[in-house]
Write a structure and sequence with these properties.
The complex is a heterodimer. Chain A is an all-alpha fold. Helices cover 74% and strands 0% of the residues of chain A. Chain A has 6 helices and no strands. Chain A starts with 32 loop residues before the first helix and ends with a helix. Chain B is an all-alpha fold. Chain B is 74% helix and 0% strand. The radius of gyration of chain B is 19 Å and the shape is elongated. Chain B starts with a helix and ends with a helix. The model of chain B has no long low-confidence stretch (mean pLDDT 92). The chains are: A mainly alpha, B mainly alpha. At the A-B interface, helix 1 and helix 5 of A face helix 9 and helix 10 of B.
Chain lengths: 211, 233
Amino acid sequence: MDGPSPSFLWTEPTTQGRTSTEPAEIEGLPAEIGIWIFVLGDMTIFGAFFVTFLVEARQHQPAFVLAAGELARPLGLLNTVVLLTSSLIVALALAAHRGSNVVKTRRLLLAAAVCGGIFGVVKAFEYSLEISHAHAPGTGLFFTFYFVLTGVHLLHVLIGTGLVLAWRSRTQRIDGWTPNRRFAETAAIYWHMVDLLWVVIFALLYLVYLR
Amino acid sequence: MNINRKVLNTAALGGPAAVILTLAGWLIAGMLPLPLGPGRSTQTIVHFFTGDADRVMVGFVLASLGVALILPMFALISVHLLRLEGRAPVMSFMQLGSGSITVLINMFPQMIFAIAAFRIHRTGSEIVMLNDLAWLLLFTGILPFMIQNVSIGIAILNSDNSVFPRWLAFLNFLVAFSFIPDPLAYFFKTGPFAWNGIFVFWLALTAYCVFLIAMSWACVRANASLADDAAAG
């Protein structure tokens, strides 16, 4: 590749400048196998949600088209931008942490957590908007899926924000990258999964049945 | 090894034994392969319990007995968590306490199903109420289950790999997550979120069976390492 890579595309450092006691990094999977089992399992459960949604939508297409038109698309789009940005920030934080730039890591992780908070506030506002328009979880199957899918996803966002903040507090308590690596990579993988799931949820709920 | 090892390995089989006996009981009772949903007519539900009441009672009594076989395995899990936690073993106690409650939550509904079939001259609404009571008790009280999974997961993540593998912690978190949709069963009479829907009955049943079988496998492995410790000590 020509030119410098963006900093989130982290390249393996050479062994120069590393003390001999430090183990070699990045062998096999990032983080550990367990988080990947979790990610695949969780995404399979969400996959089942999505397939069920599509099957039900086929059977009740006019109602789904009508209901999908009622969603606050600008708010959904705003949250998509917020989460995509947060994913970039988390990737940059991981690169900063690997480079042992603690100040930058902490600043970026705070920004990522703020994104998680913004997502939650926008979602809460969106829920109150829908409920004030008499679109409750019991108002037809589309809104059931809307509240269940986004609600379970919001729970994921809150847990992810907690993980990001825990990662941030670790940077103060535990020096260096190697002892923090497993936790940091696990939190980052989880965060990217939450982002990825939202992209699919946004497309399915807000866009697919739009006329 | 001595008798103690045999006792430990037998305790580890409690989970799979409970799975087999409960599923067999449900098959006999007719709850499997496809359970009746909350949207079915009173007549259908009455027929389910009174059409062949003895068979239904045999099935659910078997299930109610089978479920309790999990208890020895839960005790064994706490024994191994105690090895991980040292002198402040709060996760071990949380696991055992919440796990014991889950056995009650799993056991009483089977008995209520059997009670529904106990008298064939009950009114339809009485049988429907017992059926509702059993189903909603069985699936919606998710927090003891989730606390148990999370306690096991946290204890494992805060330890080295010597007793349980770390991925088992993440599997426990995943099982806990899979119970999240269950309280929706209160709000739906049909569809994927009703008590017989894929996000309540099938997801929870699959996750719980995976949990019991994985923990059984991990306990047998941990028993072996306990024997090694004893030999070394």
